[in-house]
UniProtKB/TrEMBL annotation:
Protein name according to UniProt: Uncharacterized protein
Residues annotated as transmembrane: 21-42, 54-72
Keywords assigned: Membrane, Transmembrane, Transmembrane helix
Superkingdom per UniProt: Bacteria
């Protein structure tokens, strides 16, 4: 297995290397920019006023993702148990 060979040699797994992480970030950002720019090539037929704006899917998806993260953090603080909860 590749992971065990890397660990035996004392090397980081290829996805954990800082250079790989930086490259993946750049690739993902480039892909997202290309997808938003591809919005110029699509003719929009809006059903309500705001859905015909440029990059609607991108910014609505981003706002929705941020809202889901905020709700998850809120539930996490409400449902959190102390570290000693299972200690007897």
């Amino acid at each position: 297995m590749i992971v065990s060979k890397d660990r035996e040699r004392g090397e980081d797994y290829w996805l954990a290397r800082p250079a790989t992480i930086g490259l993946l970030k750049k690739l993902f950002i480039a892909a997202l920019v290309l997808l938003v720019l591809a919005d110029f090539t699509v003719e929009h037929h809006s059903y309500f006023g705001i859905d015909g704006t440029f990059g609607f899917g991108a910014w609505v998806g981003f706002v929705t993702c941020m809202a889901l993260i905020a709700v998850a953090k809120m539930f996490g603080t409400l449902l959190k148990r102390p570290d000693s909860y299972y200690d007897n």
